[in-house]
Amino acid sequence: MQLLHGRVPIELHCLKPAQGEALLLLHALGSNAEAWRRDLLAWDRGPVYALDFAGHGKSGRVRGGAYYPEYFLADADLALETIDAPCVLIGAGVGAYVALLMAGSRPTEIRAAALLDGPGLAGGGSLPEHELAPEEFEQKFGVGIEGFERFIEEESRSYGVGTDPLVAQCERDIRPLDYVESFARDANPLVFDDSVGRASVAPDWWRCARDVGRAPERAQGAPDLLERLARLATAAARDAT
Amino acid sequence: MLARSMQEPRHPDAVAPERESSIESHGATLRLHEWGDPKAPPLVLAHGMFDHSRGFDLLAPRLAEKYRVVAVDARGHGDSDWCDSYTWDMDVFDLVNVTRWIDEPVHLVGHSKGGGQVMNAACMAPDRVRQVVNLDGFGPPDDGFFQRPGGPDLSRMSVAERCANYLDRRRVAAKRNAWRPYASLADLVARRHQQNPMLEEPWLSYFVFHGAREDKDGWRWKSDPHNAAGGFGPFKPEWIAPGWRKLRAPLLAVIGSEADTWGPLPEELLVGRLDNVKHLERATVEGAGHFIHMQQPAATADLLLGFLEH
Questions:
Q1: Residue A238 clears pLDDT 70, i.e. is over it
Q2: DSSP alpha helices (H): ranges in B211-252?
């Protein structure tokens, strides 16, 4: 179904209709709702939805190209409003960061969230530009507007067909630890993808959320993930009543 | 568009732009207004939030005696495109793209939000910028402009709770794609006067007329209502000033002598922030609040022409 975020059509895919606690899937940067593993449809407590963030999949592009994770968060929050039922989230890459922000700002509705690896997981690090050495900043993001344009072009090469290249700004945004901490503290328990930190370095925000979040768990593979989410959601629902 | 039901309000000192052009910048078409000899040294003017480039109709003609003056309508303002989302960075990229289009080093002058943005643009494109003037655009106080009149007390909330408050507002804003119409231009003028009591007739009517449009339902602002929804993110006001350490171009930092709705900052805070600027001159324009170039255009022009010449 189509939601409207201002003038931008946002596509919310219902992968499995049902009544009850919904599972909402938030994809990684450059991906879309169709890329999810089908074994997540084993969620048996309610419907399964997958969102296309703005600039991805069947959703519209943001005119003027000003993408940032909190814009995607507002996309996801409109989905939450439409679903109109308690939700659990699974987010990958930038979708994992959005899932954390959403779990922290909507703790009553979001009963649990799982954070998986994927493109856009790291963002631009936890420090603002003035706290980086100029060479470090230039090496990461390039010099001047030409550097910005090159960054967008290079990062967006691996994205799915139809993705707006400017979503690559979500690989440059700052994710300060005190900001992340606030969401992690206010959220219900979070489940972390066990593979992050083994193959690649876990981003600072990720480690911070795991350190300060309530009773974080680590999951390996889809069945384990769904089982943990179901258990956490049951506990959160019990606490809520 | 319907024929306007009223004549353009007159102002004895306002001079309409001589030329206009458009450029593309990251998916948005931006409107530029020009005054002065196209071969004179270029000077770019950037306006503030909810304003538009015709707000320079008093200052620009005075600067045009010596410069090719190019005033930019920021995206979502004036006659530039409405976008679906707005970020500080995109506005700064737009200004850098204007300097690329001009294709020779420019003087950058900005008011309020535009003042902060011309400083960032100069940091980003040092080889394209000669000198910078900031008219009372030194950022919000350290506790931000977050508190909305009549809204919940945000200072007592966690970041996550403030984010929820933002999402609540965003849900409403996501369904509202137009400003409410006002019955007459006079009503819009009265509304703007409420927000900025130091702006007076006949200028205010002239300024509001060019920032509004008439349709079958009445008068509406040209600026995008989605600007009002704002964004949310990890940005902190205390990040503003350290970013200025990269500024190579000389800066003239200007404030008005009078306390006003949006400025100036407390002197101690302003001095602390400006400590980060290597080549700094400061000036205060008497008899002006936040809208320095609208309230004292002649004095502002003299000040700028003096600074820019040396």
A1: yes
A2: 226-229, 240-243
Per-residue model confidence (pLDDT) at position B227: 74
Rounded Cα–Cα distance for residues B41 and B22 (Å): 20
Distance from CA of A56 to the nearest CA of B (A): 15
Residues of chain B with Cβ-Cβ distance to A190 below 8 Å are: none
Q: How confident is the model at residue B1 (pLDDT cuts 50, 70, 90)?
A: very low
A42 contacts: CB under 8 Å, gap ≥ 6:
A222, A223, A226
Looking at the complex, report in whole angstroms how far the Cα of residue B245 sits from the nearest Cα belonging to chain A: 8
Strand partners, B285: B256
d(CA A66, CA B86): 6
Domain boundaries, chain A: 2-231
**Is the CATH number of domain B19-145+236-309 3.40.50.1000?**
no
Yes or no, beta carbons of A175 and B234 under 8 Å apart: yes
* Chain A, chain B: beta-carbon pairs less than 8 Å apart: 127
Task: Give the residue on B whose Cα is nearest the Cα of A76.
Answer: B167
Q: Helix and strand tally (H, E) in chain B?
A: 11, 10
Q: What number is the ipTM of this complex?
A: 0.95
Is A25 touching B (CB cutoff 8 A)?
no
The CATH code belonging to domain A2-231 is 3.40.50.1820
3-class DSSP assignment, residue B284: strand
The answer, yes or no, to whether residue B74 has pLDDT greater than 70, is yes
Q: Is the pLDDT of residue B2 over 50?
A: no
Say if the Cβ atoms of A74 and B174 lie within 8 Å: yes
Q: Tens digit of pLDDT for each residue in B58-70? A: 999 999 999 999 9
Residues of B in contact with A71 (CB under 8 A): 85, 231
Establish if A1 touches chain B: CB-CB under 8 angstroms: no
